Amino acid sequence: MSPSSQSLSDAIAGLPEEERIILTMHYLRSMSTGDIAQILGVPERSVSAIIEQGKVRLLTIMGM
Questions:
Q1: Closest CA to 23 of 1, 61, 44, 53
Q2: With contact defined as beta carbons under 8 Å apart, do 47 and 37 qualify?
Q3: What is the pLDDT of residue 62?
Q4: Are 23 and 52 in contact (CB under 8 A)?
Q5: Which residues lie closer than 8 Å to 62 by C-beta, 6 or more apart?
Q6: Residue 26 gets which letter from DSSP?
Q7: Could you give the C-alpha distances from 56 to 19, 35, 38, 63, in angstroms and in order?
Q8: Is the pLDDT of residue 1 over 60?
Q9: What is the pTM of this model?
Q10: Which of 10, 18, 25, 51 would you label with 38, given CA atoms 20 to 30 Å apart?
Q11: What is the pLDDT of residues 6-19, one digit of tens each?
Q12: What domains are there in the chain, each with its CATH number?
């Protein structure tokens, strides 16, 4: 694993569980916010908000 990949892996591991799961579903599994919302039983707008929060948190963790 390259150093940048390891840093991203560490940053993802440092996210709260809910953000980690939703970001993984969205970006690594290419799932839509609607599909994620349906699977998790939450409103789609909540999924969208968690994705945005998670992106900000990832950038903060990675010092960007």
A1: 53
A2: yes
A3: 85
A4: no
A5: 7, 8, 11
A6: I
A7: 11, 22, 24, 11
A8: no
A9: 0.82
A10: 10
A11: 588 888 898 999 99
A12: 3-61 (1.10.10.10)
Contacts of the segment 13-21: beta carbons below 8 A, 24+ positions apart:
14/61, 15/54, 15/57, 15/58, 15/61, 16/57, 18/50, 19/50, 19/53, 19/54, 19/57, 20/54
Bin 4: left if φ > 0, else alpha if -120 < ψ < 50, else beta: alpha
Tokens linked to 45: 């707008």
Tokens of 42: 């939450």
Tokens for 47? 């999924």
- Rounded Cα–Cα distance for residues 52 and 58 (Å): 10
Judged by DSSP in three states, 44 sits in helix
